[in-house]
Structure formats: structure tokens, C-alpha cells
Amino acid sequence: MAHPARATPGNHVGHYEILSEVGAGGMGVVYKAFDHQLERTVALKFLPPDPICNSADRNRLLHEARAASTLDHKNIASIHAVEETEDGQLFIVMAYCDGVSLATRMCATPLSKAETVDIVRQIAEGLAHAHLHNIVHRDVKPSNVILTLAGEAKIVDFGLARFVSAGASTQTLSIAGTLSYMSPEQLSGKAVDARTDVWSLGVIAYELLTNRLPFQSDNPASTITAILQLPPAEMEGVSLELQSIVFRALAKNATDRYQSCAELLCDLKTIDALEGEATRSTGRETFKVRVPLTIPPTDKTRVLPRKRRWLTALVVALPVLIVCVLLLLLLLLKRAPPVSAAYETYLQGRDSLRRYDKPGNLDAAIGLFETTTKADPKFALAFAALGEAYWDKYRRDGDPRWVELASTSCKRAAELNDRLPAVFVTLGRIHDGTGQHNLALQEFERALELDHRDADALLGLGDAYSSTGRAQEAEDTYKRAAAMRPEYWDGYYRLGAFYYQQGRFADAASQFRRVVELLPDHAPAHTSLGTAWLSLGQEADAEAEFKKSLALAPDYPALANLGVMYYQQKRFAESAAMTEKALSLNDKDYRLWNNLAIAYEWLGQPDKAQNAFSRELARLEQIVTLKSEDADVRASLGVMYAQLHQRSRALAHLEAALAFSPDDPEILCKVGEAYEKLGERSRALEYFQKTLNKGLTLKDLELNPDLRSLLSDPSARRVLQGALPAKANPQPSVNQ
User: Fold this and answer.
1) Which pLDDT tens digit goes with each residue over 417-468?
2) Angle between helices 647-660 and 631-643 in degrees, nearest 10
3) Which residues contact 607 (CB under 8 A, 6 or more apart)?
4) Would you tell me how many other CB atoms lie within 10 Å of the CB of residue 169?
5) Coil, strand, or helix at residue 209?
6) Secondary structure of 96-142 as H, E, C letters
7) At 193, phi and psi to the nearest 5?
8) Do 181 and 204 touch, CB atoms closer than 8 A?
9) Residue 333 burial (CB < 10 Å; 0-12/13-18/19+)?
């Protein structure tokens, strides 16, 4: 074996094959390697082969592993093992983070304020987790943060970390770290705790926002003086709210600083709402998936949130007013009434939540409900509403953290008052949205036991019936719910979404028109009506509705479906442009990344296509942990693993997808594509034949650039032509 410090691709260290050198520094040399035993890519870290390395360096390496191996958090790179070479050299086996360091990213184009806030928040979350385990990093700096292809910030190199005991305040620790990011207490040789990491994070935040360090001089001595004595300069172009957070993190006296990253995160929450979600960039090789399809108005595809549920505000209708009064009476039996100010704030939140389609309303509702629950920690109804708002936030941007917050809020509401139907309705929606349909049914039924006339519980029950294939029961339940509130749009909206899912596009359009008649300014209703028209082949009507939606509010599904329509018309440049605009509003929908990628593929721009495919892969790998029973997610991952020639992993996902949706033509098409990528054309043709029998056409297949080889094979094409339903007209071929 070559010495690790001089290793080249192809060398082996035990069962690890060196792929490339990632980087080197004072604490070691890191290589990207492949673990042939567990078939995964890892990072191997060795001490540098230098004569000055001694037992202290060796012990430090072991200390890093012991400290970091106890941590399990998405924003911390995990440690797998500590191993030894044949010549006695220790190395750490770590998770390989495919991406770039924050230091490298900072040398490229400047980060926006939204991106900066998002990165700082993620680093703070990782550090907060470490601090809970009494581990202080002590060397937080941009080169020790990796930005992965999934858009996650991961903290690496806990080589300077140490366990902090209750008596640590009396210990004197050796100076370690990187000068520009070191806290005053580190430079003074004093004891350090979590607040030294807060300082370093403040330096990073300042640097990201201003493109300069807060304390930097011509020489180390001057830099130390600045850190210990001088204030940082004002941050031009940065909001006062954000400046105040950074400057508090950079307080010279640790007692004046944020006392924990968790405390800092609380203040960052307000900035998140002001600055918006960051758009993250990636650059990894990726894998092709499928032809884009119209985003249907269902929760699964985000054009129309089929599972959206709102409680009507007290002033909307007398029946709902009566129900709410009864709920308040139940609340009064369990505790004293909420303070007047808190209740007024709660009502304002309900008004905002009722019209979620208005820009900013959902974030406003969350803020109002959070204020209410802080003012009155025993206000069960407010916790239930907060859980509902968090869940709807997840359905809009796909960030998994909202799911946990929604569940926690609902559980808190149930602890305070287990007689509120709203609690179990939201819990049911969460279960249904994460694939736990039987649990969802139980929650909705429990809500109806508490109030058999709860229209929201009925709508949720209809969703669960639909998810489990009980179509007739779903339709009947949706109609009952709509009849209970004929003046309210949500019942018609959800019934239209159900019809769309069933392929009854004309019926869906009829329901969406009713919503538009009730609320002409409802942007999602115009988008959904346009989606139905598009599915009916009425492209001019569809485009008109999408543009009406966009005139009312920025609506990413409207932009996305315009992109789909242009793609179907083979206007690939316009399709890519519209899809990019949609992604600028929401970059978490994996389907959009796929649509963008294949548009670029047709345009002959492989680099852009690869970047988009990598974003889709990253999103899918996140989503599958929450939606393990989502057939589309499973089938898409199956296609990706087939592209990687990982047959066993591909087949596992494909089999799961078929188990969940055995008759869905989209799923069958993806299974066929996966077998084609695996080089098993005969199996691929079997599934494409089933796909065509279920309603897809050769024209649909021809829109997929990855099927060009198959469709240009005369024998394969004859097989597919023979699978078309007898009543179907021959489909035009792009190859003719």
C-alpha cells in the first residue's frame, strides 16, 4: 500500500479503495474512498506523514472520533469507525459529503441574504445538537462546513472538540482553532464552552453578509488586538434585525453573547420569514428519470393541495360559529379562558390561515399562532391551529422540519384538551400525507366521534379513502362535506382534486369553476382549472387560467404547468425558462427538477441537465424517509439506481412502487424505463405495453429523451404499436 499521504486513485487501504484526495490541513489529509465491504463512498482521514506528528496528534485523532461518533444530526458529518493500517497508522472513516466547502463557495458568486440566513441556521442547528451532548467544536470556520448537493450544511472535523463537564469552567484549555474565527476567551487561554462556537458562527455570518472578516489586520498581533478590543464595523446593506443578531453573537464578553445556539436560532426564525428561503446550488453528476407530466391538483404533486383543510373563521357562517362556541365551552370546562389579547391574536391567525392562497398569509398565521401559544401556553385550540399551519407550510415547501413541528404542536394540544376535533383532523392529515393511511383513518374517525358534523374531518376522511383506493366512499364523503358548507370553497376544491386524480378531468374543471365563481381572486383555483383544461387538451384555455393565476400572485404550480405545456409542445427553451421561474419560488419539488433536466437535455445542455438531475436525486433521498409508501418517489429512485447500475437497490424501490400502485400508468412507465437502463429490454417492453394499455401513448414515451434508443429499434416499436388499444389512432413518431 502506498503511504496515505502520497496515495493515488486505485490504491487500497484494507477494503477501502482510494478515489481521490479531497484536501489536507494541519489536522490531517482526507481522501474520498469506496468501501468495498459495505458498498458505499466514504471519506478517510489520516494524520499528515510528518516527523513532528507524535502521540498527542494520534490521541487527538482518536478524540475526534470518540466525540463526533456520539453525534447524530443532519448538519453534522457522521463518523463510521476508527481503523488502523498494516503499518500502524490510524485513520477515521467518515461519511463522505459530496459538495463543496463553505470557504470554496464563498470564493464564487456572492451569497444572497436568504442563502446566508439558511446556511447560518443549519450550522446553528448542528452546533446546538453537539452542545446538547456537551461537545464544543472549537474550530468552526468556513473550511469546516460542507455544502452538500442536497443543500444541507454539514459541520466536519471535530478534531478540536472536547467534552465539557460541569466543572469545565475551572479548566484552562490550550489555544486551538483558526485565528480569525477564534473567540476572545480562546485567545486569552480561558475556559471555553458553547458560546465560543456562537462567536465563530457570528464571524461566519458577518463574513457571508459583507464579504469581509469582522476582525482582520495586517498581522496576527493586530488581529488578536482587534478581536479582544475593537468592535466590528457596521454592515452596510444588511437589515438592522440581522445586524443585531450578528453583533450579539460577537459580543466580547461571553455573558453578553447568545448563551446557546438554540437561543440564536429563535431570533433567526424572524429573519427566515423576512429573508425567504434560500436557493441552493449543486453540481454533481446525476441521473435521468422520466418525462414530465402535468402537475395534478393533489397534495402529492403540489398544484392543488388536495389535503388542505381550514377551520372557517367565526364570522363565516352560523353552523361553524355554533361549533366554535361549543369548542370554547369545552375549553372553559378544562381551564380558565385565554387572555383577551391572546384570543384576538388567535382569531387573526385563523383569518390568515383561511386564505392561505394570499402571499404571506401562511407565514403570518404561523407567527400569530406562535405569539398566541407563548402568551397563553395552555391555549389548546391555538396549538392545534399552529400544528395545522406548520403542516401546510410543509406541503408548500417540502421542508421536513415542519412535519416534526406540526406533530409536536398537535400532541401538545391533545395533552391540554383531548376533546378537540381539530387536533385529530390535523394529525390525520399528517399521517395521510406521510403514507400512514390507516392511522389517518383512525384520527379522522376519532374527530367525527367528537363532532359528527365536522366538515374538515369529513374532507380528511375523503382524502384517506382516496389514498387507500376506496374511490366511491371518497366521492360520497367529499360531497357530504361540501353540502355541509355550500358557501365555502374548500369542499368544491377538494372534490375537484379528487376528480382530477381519478382522471375525470371535465368533472374536475366543473368543481374548480365553482371555486373561481365564489372567489375570483383565488390564484390556486385558477391554476387548478388550467391544469384540468390542459389535461383535456384545451391548451389555450389552460394558458389563460395559468396567466390569470400569475396576475393575482406568484404561483409556482402555474409556472410549472406552463413549463409542462411548453414541453409538450416541444418548446423546450420556454419550458426551461418557466420551470426555472417556478423553482425560484419553490426549489423543493423534485418533479420540477426532473422537468428542467430533461428540457435541458433536449436543448443539448448536458451540464445544466446534470445539475438539475442531481437536485432531484437529493430531494428524493430526503423525501423517501418521510414518504416511504409514495409510489412515485419509490419508482423515481428505482430509475435513478438503475441509471447507476445498482440493480438490487433499483428493484427494491420498483417492487415497492408496484406494490403501492400496481395499475398506475406513470409507475408502470417508470418501471419500464428502469429495466431499459438496466439493459433488460424485454422486461422493459412488458411494462411499456402495460403502460400503453392503461392510457399513455407513444407520444408520451417519445417525450422522454432516455427512450430514444428503444423507440428507434424497429422490432421494439412494433411491439409497442401492437400494445395500443384497438380504438386508439396510431401515434405520430418523432422518428418519422
Assistant:
1) 888 888 888 888 888 887 788 888 888 888 888 887 788 888 889 888 888 8
2) 160
3) none
4) 11
5) helix
6) CCCEEEHHHHHHCCCCCHHHHHHHHHHHHHHHHHHHHCCEECCCCCH
7) -145, -160
8) yes
9) exposed
Cβ atoms of 630 and 666 closer than 8 Å: no
> Which H or E run contains 145?
strand 145-148
Pairing type for strands 16-25 and 28-35 reads antiparallel
Grid coordinates standing for 637?
429512485
Q: How far apart are CA 324 and CA 330, in angstroms?
A: 10
Looking from the CA of 301 toward its CB, the CA atoms found within 13 Å total 25
Q: Does 139 qualify as catalytic in the annotation?
A: yes
| Side-chain half-sphere exposure of 79, counting CA atoms within 13 A | 21
Contact 216, 180 (CB under 8 A): yes
Q: Smallest Cα–Cα separation from 482: which of 447, 515, 446?
A: 515
Distance of alpha carbon 243 from its chain centroid, rounded? 27
According to DSSP, the β-strands at 162-163 and 135-136 are antiparallel
CB 701 within 8 A of CB 669: yes
Tell which residue, 449, 465, 448, has the closest CA to residue 457: 448
The 10s digit of each residue's pLDDT in 9-24 is 778 888 888 888 877 6
Using the predicted structure, report yes or no on whether residue 495 has a pLDDT greater than 50. Answer: yes
Task: Give pLDDT, residue 204.
Answer: 95
How far is the C-alpha of 457 from the C-alpha of 311, rounded, in Å? 10
The C-alpha cell at 530 is 388550467
Phi, psi (deg, nearest 5) at residue 134: 60, 35
For 522, counting Cβ atoms within 10 Å of its Cβ (0-12 exposed, 13-18 middle, 19+ buried), the class is buried
C-beta separation of 508 from 532 below 8 A:
yes
Distance (Å, rounded) from C-alpha 376 to C-alpha 324?
19
Torsion of CA 235, 239, 244, 247, to 10 degrees: -20
Beta bridge partners of 90: 84
* pTM tops 0.70, yes or no: no
d(CA 561, CA 558): 5
State the chain's mean pLDDT as an integer: 78
The C-alpha atoms of residue 499 and residue 497 are separated, in whole angstroms, by: 5
C-alpha distances in Å from residue 59, one per residue of 27, 45, 91, 374, 596: 12, 14, 12, 47, 49
Partners of 442 in beta bridges: none
Query: Is it the case that residue 309 has pLDDT exceeding 50?
Result: no
Q: CB of 598 within 8 A of CB of 288?
A: yes
- Cβ burial of 598 (10 Å; 0-12, 13-18, 19+) is buried
- Give the list of residues 6+ apart from residue 322 with CB closer than 8 angstroms, or none: none
Which value, in Å, is the radius of gyration of the alpha carbons in the chain?
A: 28
Quote the DSSP letter at residue 20. Answer: E
Q: Which of 98, 118, 139, 700 is catalytic?
A: 139
Q: How far apart, in whole angstroms, are the C-alpha atoms of residue 224 and residue 321?
A: 65
Q: Please, what are the domains in the chain? A: 4-95 (3.30.200.20), 99-275 (1.10.510.10), 303-486 (1.25.40.10), 630-723 (1.25.40)
Q: CA of 157: how far to CAs of 70, 107, 692, in Å?
A: 14, 21, 53
Is the pLDDT assigned to residue 119 strictly greater than 90? yes
How many Cβ atoms from other residues are within 10 Å of residue 358's Cβ? 15
C-alpha span between 545 and 103 (Å, rounded)? 45
CB 589 within 8 A of CB 398: yes
CB distance 423 to 414 below 8 Å: yes
Contacts with 682 (C-beta within 8 Å, 6 or more apart), sequence order: none
Distance CA(157)–CA(140), nearest Å, equals 9
Q: How far apart are CA 713 and CA 722, in angstroms?
A: 14
